[in-house]
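Technical appendix A lists one of the benchmark inputs used to test multi-chain prediction within the project. The record comprises two sequence entries:
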Amino acid sequence: MPHETTTPRSFQEIILRLQTYWAKQGCAVLQPYDMEVGAGTFHPATTLRSLGSKPWAAAYVQPSRRPTDGRYGENPNRLQHYYQYQVIIKPSPPNLQELYLGSLAAIGIDLGLHDIRFVEDDWESPTLGAWGLGWEVWCDGMEVSQFTYFQQVGGHDCKPVSGELTYGLERLAMYVMGVDHVMDMPFNDPDAPIPLTYGDIFRQTEEEYSRHNFDGATTEMLFQHFKDAEAECQRLLAFAPQDPKSGKRIIMAHPAYDQTIKASHLFNLLDARGVISVTERQAYIGRVRALAKQCADAFRQTEAGADL
Amino acid sequence: MPDLLIELFSEEIPARMQAKAREDLKKLVTDGLVEAGLTYASAGAFSTPRRLVLSVEGLTSESRPVREERKGPSVSAPAQAVEGFLRSTGLTLDQLERRADKKGETFYAVVEKPGRQAAEIVAEVLEGVIRSFPWPKSMRWGAGSLRWVRPLQSILCLLSDETGAHVVPLTVDGIVAGNTTEGHRFMGMGRFTVTGFDDYAVKLKRAKVVLDSAEREAAIWQGAQNLAFAAGMEVVADPGLLTEVAGLVEWPVPLMGRIADQFLALPPEVLQTSMKEHQKFFSVRNPKTGRIEGFVTVANIEAADGGEVILKGNQKVLAARLSDAKFFWENDLRVAKAGMGEWVEGLKSVTFHNKLGSQADRIDRIAALAREIAPLVGADADDAERAARLAKLDLRSAMVGEFPELQGVMGRYYALEAGEKASVADAARDHWRPKGESDSVPVEPVSVAVALADKIDTLTGFWAIDEKPTGSKDPFALRRAALGVIRLVLGNGYKLDLLLQLLNSIELHYEAANRAALPALEAKIEQDKRVKEAFIEQVKKQLGDDVVVTHPDELRDRSNRMFARYGGLSGDQLRLTHAKLSDLLSFFHDRLKVYLKDQGVRHDIIDACLAMPGNDDLTLLVKRATALSEVLKTEDGANLLQGFKRANNILSQAEAKDGVEYSFGADLKFAETDEERALFAALDKAEATITPAMQAEDFGTAMAAMAALRAPIDAFFTAVQVNSDNQIVRRNRLNLLHRIRAVCSGVADLTRIEG
C-alpha cells in the first residue's frame, strides 16, 4: 500500500489525488454529469451502469444539490451545493476495502495514527428503487465515506454486485486539512498568485441559491415542470425500439433517465419550498421511483445494460 | 479424539448481529454433527467484527456404522412391485436377500452404511450452515451467488488430533477452506498458519485481536474506569453500549476526553444521548458537580502517538454534534418560554394516522378523556387536561426531532420553562410510561390520568378502524398499551370501570369524526324530538339483549346518546361498536391473563373470576383472583373445591333429570342426620360472614369463610345419601346442595377451576 504522507494543501489537491489514485486502480475517470442531481449515485455511470452483467469501473466528482440544506453560507458544514467523489466498480473486487483504505492514505490520512472503522449503515434510495448493504466509514469518529454493495437498483437485482464508494469531499477535506469552517478552506494552493478559498468561490452562490430554494423558485412552474418531466420520460420510453431514420435498434434509456433526474431535483426544490405535505411526499417519491424503474427496465434492454 | 476449529472471516459484521450469529453458528454446526452421528465433549463460539469462530473439543473421529433392513414385496409379487422396491432402495435384484416365512419367500434389502470420517461430515455440515445461515439481513457481492452478512473472505476449518492438524477439504462458492487467518486490520502482520484453537487464540492476540467479546467488554470497562478514576471522575454504566462497542473493535483502546465548557449547561440526558447515539461514547460524570463533563471513546488501534490525533478528531466531531444540540436546545427554549404555541400549531399538520386524524386531534381527545379519568385516580381535572395538552408538544421540538428517544424528557424541561406546575410538567415525561416490562409505573395522579387516557385513546382508535394486532404483528404496540393500562391500574390499586372509560374514549373518536356535521345534526334533532325518540326506540330494538357487557343499561343509554348526537351511526354500526368494545375488553383480559400468569396465578383461576360481574374493574378482578389462588393452596380450600364440585354435579344431574331447579326452600325441619343439621348451621354462619365481606370486597375473609365449609360438607357427603327414597327428604337435600352452590358461586365461578 503506497503511503503518501504529506498533507494536501487545498481542496483541489485532494480531488486530484483521488483522481490519480483511482485512475491507477484502473477506473475510468469520468467527468461530472451535466445535470442537477442530489448525489453522485444519480449519475447514469452509477445508476444505469450498475445494471446488467458488463464489468464497469468508474470514478468521478459529482457536484450535488440538496436544496433543503441551504444555510446562506453561514453553517460551517452545511451547503445546498457540494461535491461528492464517487467510485463504482462492477463486479465489486474482493479487495475493495483495501483499495478504499489506500485512497485514504493517498489523501494524507496516516492509517497508523487514525482510527478507521466500518460501522453498519445500510443504504437505501427510495427515489431510485435501490438499496444495498455496507457501512459508513468513520475516521476518528467522523463519517468520511459511505461504502455500499448494491443489491438492487431500479427494482432490478444487481448481478453481479457493484461496489460503490462515496466520499463527502468538503467534510473529508476539512478534516484532513484541519479547517473549521468550509468557507475558510483553501480551494487552490494557498501560495498561488491568486489564492482562492471555498468561500471566495461559493459564499455568494450559497446565499443566492438558499434564497432561491426557500423563497424564490416559482412553485407553480416547478409543479408543471415535474409533470412535464414525468410525461416526457414515459413518452420517450414508449417509442418502438426500431429507429426508422438510422435503421438501428435505439432505446432512449438515457434521455428518459435525464427526465427522471429532472423530476427528482424538481421534487427536492418543491420540498425545500415547503409546499409538499407529509402524505404527498410519499406519493411524489413513488412517482420518481416509478420513472427510475421504467428507465432501468429500458436500460436492461440495451447493449450496455444487457447480460452477457 | 480430534478437536475442530472453524473461523469464518469476513468484512465487518454489524455489531448488533454478532452475539446471535455466534450462538447460531454453535447450535447449527453442533446439531448438524450430532445428527450425522458424531458426538463431542464441549463447544464454544466467539465473535469479533471480522470473524465468527467455533471451537469443538473431543469430537469423535467417525460416525458409527448403521445397518438398515427393509422388508420388500413377496418373491411371487408382480414384477412392477419388485422394480418399485429396487428403485426405492437403489439396489439390484441380485443384491436383495430372500427369506422364507409363512407365506413363502419375501425380498429383503439390507443396506450397511459404513461409519463416515469426521472430516467428511464437518465439511458437509459447515457448507450447509454457511449456505443457509440465518442472518437478519444478508447480501451478495462480486460475481458470486453466496449470501453472507458482508463479503465472506476466508474459511479456516481444521481438525486436529495427535497426528497433527488437518484442513477439512471444503470449498464454498470458490472459497477454499485452509489453515490460515489474519490478525488486526492495521496492526496485524499478514496471514499466519494455525494448528488448533489454543494456537489460534495465542497467535491472534499477538496479531492484536482479542477473540472473546466478554474479554473485550471487560477490558473496555476496566480501561474506561481507570481513565475516569485518574481524573477524579466516574463512567456512567451502559451495558448495551458496552456490548455494542465491543462488537466494533478487535483491539479496544479506551481514550478519555473532556466536553467543552460551553456545552456543560445542556441537560445531562441530551449530552448522554448525543454522545451515545452519534459517537458511541460513554458519558463520564464529575461526582463533585454531578454533571456529565467528559467522555470515553474506544479506538480500535494503538496509535503511534498514544491516540492524541484520534482523541482530537473525536473531540472535534463531538463539538460539532453538541453545537447542533445546543442550537436545538436554545431554539426550543425560546419556543417554550413563549408558551409553546408554535408547537401547538405545528401538531395540527402532523398526521397521527390517516384514519385517526392529526396529533392535535389526538391531543384533544386525550385531554377530554384525561378530565373524565382524573377524579377516579385522585387528580385535579384541570391539571390533567392541561398536562394532556402539553404532554406531546415536544414532538415538535428540534431536539426530539433529532433524538426521538428524548421525547418526554424534553417535554418536561420545556413545560417547566413555560412556567407549568411540576406535576403537570412531570406528566409530559411520565405519561409515556411504563415504556416496557422493566419500566416502573408512574404514581403521580396527573401523570397517571394522562398516561391512561393516552393509552386508552390509542387502543379504542385502532380497534375502531380494525387495526388490531394479529399473531406476531403489532405495529402500533397495542399489546404494550393494554399492558400499560393494566399495570397503571393495578400498580396504583385504582377502582376504574374500564368499560365505561373505553366507551368515553370511543365517543370522543365519534365526536371528532363528526365534528363538522355536529351543529347541523343537533339542530335537526332539536327541531324534531319525535325523530330522536323514534331513533332511540329503533336502536333499542336493534341492540336487543345480545350485547353482553357488564354495564348493559349504561352502555345502552350512552350508545343512544352517541347515536342521537352523531347521527351518522346506523343501528348496525352501533352494534359493531358494542362488539368492538367487548372484543377490546377481552383483549385486556387476555393481556391480564398473561400478566397474572407471570405472577404465578393459574389461568383457570383467572377464568373463574372473569366469569363474575364487574370484570372490567381490574383491581377487583385481581383481588378476587389472588384471594382464590391463596385459598385453593390451603388444604381446606382444595378439599372444599371437591365438595363444591360434588354438590354441583349431583344437583345439576338431578335438575337435568327432574327438569326443575332446586333453588329454594331447604328446611331444617326435614333434616334427618346431625351432619345435615350441622351443614345447615355452617351455611348460615358462612353466609353471615360472606355477604358483608363480599359487599366490602374483602375476598380474603369471604373465601376463608367459604373454605370453613369444607369439614361440614365432607361430613355431610360421608354420612348422607342425597338421593333418598323419601322425595321430601331428597328435595330438601337437593335444595341444601343449592345453598352450597349459591354461597360458593358468589365468590367465583368454581366450575371453571381444573382438578
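Residues 308-337 of chain B form the longest helix (30 residues). The interface with chain A takes residues 11-12, 14-16, 49, 137, 139-144, 149-151, 153, 186, 248-249, 279, 297, 299-301, 303-305, 309-310, 312-314, 316-318, 320, 349-351, 354 of chain B (CB under 8 Å). Comparable benchmark entries are summarised in Table A2.
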